[in-house]
Amino acid sequence: MANSAGSKKRARQAVKRNKHNSQIRAKVRTFVKKVAYAIAAGDKKEADNGFEAMQKNLDQAVSKGLIHKNQAARKKSRLKAQIKVL
Q1: What is the pLDDT of residues 44-84, one digit of tens each?
Q2: CA angle 20–23–24, rounded 5-degree value
């Protein structure tokens, strides 16, 4: 347990930051799933629209350091390739 005032504050900040980061990661996963479901349904227009929103959210998560840039690039590349096949 934190003893000094500074370490207590850091513990509070860590909890708050963890909650915020978890929400952003969940939002990214939701957008990725929307695109994946559109691909599975064979709806190219919906997949393209969802891909644009997903790409924005992924890039924002990368800029905040929540997701590694290579992981985001891999997700975008694989989903775009699947959309192209439709």
Answers
A1: 999 999 999 999 999 999 999 999 999 999 999 999 999 99
A2: 90
Both tokens of 58, joined, read 């992924």
Q: Which DSSP helix (H) or strand (E) runs through 40?
A: helix 5-41
Tell me the three state secondary structure of residue 69. Answer: helix
CA pair distance 46, 34, nearest whole angstrom: 9
Residue 2 is encoded by which pair of tokens? 């934190």
Distance CA 27, CA 66 (A): 12
| Residue given tokens 């990368």 in the structure block | 62
Collapse the DSSP code of 44 into the 3-class scheme (helix H, G, I; strand E, B; otherwise coil) and give the result: helix
pTM: 0.84
